[in-house]
């Protein structure tokens, strides 16, 4: 077993060197490096240590995407014939598959942006929530296509991530306004569509995202505005929450909070669950999906 | 082979006999009409089409048998020769009488004649393809040529006398008595059977019954009297009865077990259908057994085959009922948290199993059992849960909106899951789902995958079951209110058994394959078909 500080250090370096990379991608890079350095003797031992490594990483960064990305990585590399005699050859095959997986997912954001920017019409007013790199990529692509649009971003307490998003958009010369989280209902009559990212896409077709997304979805349903979600396919996770209470605690709070605080009833959750009935369409690198098609794709990915 | 000219008469009769032997389904008149239209189109268009679509009259995979290659070359020569010849008024029932082409000789071998007949069929089909392109509104080709048309099952066409007559003839052939309908049927449901429990089918059977195996007779009686109820119970009882049948079966001489046993089972299935209409799970079980029987390799000895079949049945029950229940409980228990108030309706064996398992794993919850007349099945569920020590409340369905604000989850069982995501279950289930949705209470349906069926239904009228209307009569304080309902001519009593719940009201379906949304039922069906 690798010592876990090395693992964590590698993960943190990956996140630092490329701040634009999704945390799940960094996690998968780390797992690939872990696979290369692993000195296990059996395939089963290899799988066990990879699972252990994923758990380590989830302790560092408790987002849904890291755990889903790790699980999908493991499935992808072992979903091949591992009937070779030599363990090193098996490892080589797994490493190759891992590289392939990494390549596929690094292209996923571009694919999503290509699919989604056509839904942004000239003169559109867009509302988005907090800071999402995928949404930023989509808006970049739309701006590159010479479309004129304005963006409203929610401030998104408690970490005011919305301000970062606003700065990035200003650099693209897109007119942007930062609004209070409480002003979502007020601003919705002006906007044409709502685009949000997702930290995880669950089996029912709903999403898990920064707290405040559910509110925004309910308001846009009441105003009959389309609610679009952009997410890469490695964020698909095998969870099925029935309501907000049903989301496991390990995703709701930051990793540090989970470690230090014993009574979580005083803590503010960082994410919420948006049910599929409020989502119009999901844009993923597997295509444009309706929420009910997500289960189909999940079955294909996981079974 | 119909030659033109003097040799017509006797040759035509041979043709008719041959047509009958080949089992042509078109009636004389239909064929005549078709031929007339074809003639019209042939005169208008050029028919030199290579008939690649050389399929038989029965809808079959479009592979071209090699034998038709030589005849297709003959086809173009046959057609133009036949065009100017008018259809003889008496008309041979099979095909037009083409003039003998120079290559044909009067004395033809049987193979050549067959080949020529096939050529004519290809020509017919070619011209029919043309008629699709031509703008004229020709009569629709008979449905046998269109393989997609499905026929309605007989048990939902009771108001059509032709269908009823056909059913009666079929039962007569199988020597099974026909059960007669009882009482005034509400007009919206006049297409369904309505039987009386006081007149079971078994009373009309002779003793000893030579046609029907005694265990099947017993099973039929248990179904019709309501002794064996519930989707799982009925399928398992059916499979056990079939095991007994297989045990007592001996292959008659000159027969193959694979084919004869399937034919033996057909009258049993009709009999059981008459006693009580088959459920979706029973239908799937029967399909499985028939497949297993017909897949028995012919070199198996009788004893081997019988043991293999019995093992298959045991395996099926074990996988689809027992192990599935275990898997479903495992997933369902993840959804039951401490302090939950769970609402259940009626008596579902699966839901009861889940609740007992959850209680054994020390989850703290309480249950509200909702019940409805006339079956009052909730009492059975109540008894089972209370015996385990689970704290329960019992209400009738009319108190549903009163009790729902207390409820945190609703667990429902299912009779079948339809291909469009609708849930078919005991009548009253859709009501519960509807009210729960209004109160934002999550509704979870638990269903094994062997109950998934390919049928599509959007309402509860099209295909349902009507129970004995006399069940609705209730005696209180010595008085029975509705006992003379037969005398009131405008009064109808309706005792429905099933209803369908749309997928918008269902939040989650727990199956042995995992937790899926209601809309993913076709995906599961597809995966299962691939596995087979």
Automatic annotation (TrEMBL), chain A:
Any GO molecular function: translation initiation factor activity
Protein name from the UniProt record: Translation initiation factor eIF2B subunit alpha
Transcription regulation recorded as keyword: no
One Pfam assignment: IF-2B
Keyword Electron transport in record: no
Function statement: Acts as a component of the translation initiation factor 2B (eIF2B) complex, which catalyzes the exchange of GDP for GTP on eukaryotic initiation factor 2 (eIF2) gamma subunit. Its guanine nucleotide exchange factor activity is repressed when bound to eIF2 complex phosphorylated on the alpha subunit, thereby limiting the amount of methionyl-initiator methionine tRNA available to the ribosome and consequently global translation is repressed.
Highest taxon above the source species: Eukaryota
Subcellular location: Cytoplasm, Cytosol
Family of the protein in this entry: Belongs to the eIF-2B alpha/beta/delta subunits family.
Any Gene Ontology CC annotation: cytosol
SUPFAM superfamilies: NagB/RpiA/CoA transferase-like (SSF100950)
InterPro entries assigned to the protein according to its UniProt record, in alphabetical order: eIF2B_alpha/beta/delta, elF-2B_alpha_N, IF-2B-related, IF_2B-like_C, NagB/RpiA_transferase-like
Broad class of where this protein is predominantly found: cytoplasm
Keywords: Cytoplasm, Initiation factor, Protein biosynthesis
Summary of subunit composition and partner proteins: Component of the translation initiation factor 2B (eIF2B) complex which is a heterodecamer of two sets of five different subunits: alpha, beta, gamma, delta and epsilon. Subunits alpha, beta and delta comprise a regulatory subcomplex and subunits epsilon and gamma comprise a catalytic subcomplex. Within the complex, the hexameric regulatory complex resides at the center, with the two heterodimeric catalytic subcomplexes bound on opposite sides.
Automatic annotation (TrEMBL), chain B:
Biased composition (Polar residues): 65-75
Superkingdom as given in the UniProt entry: Eukaryota
Annotated region described as Disordered, given as residue ranges: 1-150
Ranges of compositional bias, category Basic residues: 33-43
GO cellular component: cytosol; eukaryotic translation initiation factor 2B complex
Amino acid composition bias (Basic and acidic residues), ranges on this chain: 10-32, 44-59, 105-127
Keyword Cytoplasm appears in the UniProt entry: yes
GO MF annotation terms: guanyl-nucleotide exchange factor activity; translation initiation factor activity
GO BP, one annotated term: central nervous system development
Main subcellular localisation: cytoplasm
Keywords from the named record: Cytoplasm, Initiation factor, Protein biosynthesis
Pfam families found in the cross-reference section: IF-2B
Signal peptide positions (record): none
Composition skew (Low complexity), residue ranges: 88-104
InterPro entries: IF-2B-related, IF_2B-like_C, NagB/RpiA_transferase-like
Subcellular compartments: Cytoplasm, Cytosol
Quaternary structure note: Component of the translation initiation factor 2B (eIF2B) complex which is a heterodecamer of two sets of five different subunits: alpha, beta, gamma, delta and epsilon. Subunits alpha, beta and delta comprise a regulatory subcomplex and subunits epsilon and gamma comprise a catalytic subcomplex. Within the complex, the hexameric regulatory complex resides at the center, with the two heterodimeric catalytic subcomplexes bound on opposite sides.
Family classification: Belongs to the eIF-2B alpha/beta/delta subunits family.
Purpose of the protein: Acts as a component of the translation initiation factor 2B (eIF2B) complex, which catalyzes the exchange of GDP for GTP on eukaryotic initiation factor 2 (eIF2) gamma subunit. Its guanine nucleotide exchange factor activity is repressed when bound to eIF2 complex phosphorylated on the alpha subunit, thereby limiting the amount of methionyl-initiator methionine tRNA available to the ribosome and consequently global translation is repressed.
Protein name: Translation initiation factor eIF2B subunit delta
Source organism per UniProt: Oncorhynchus mykiss
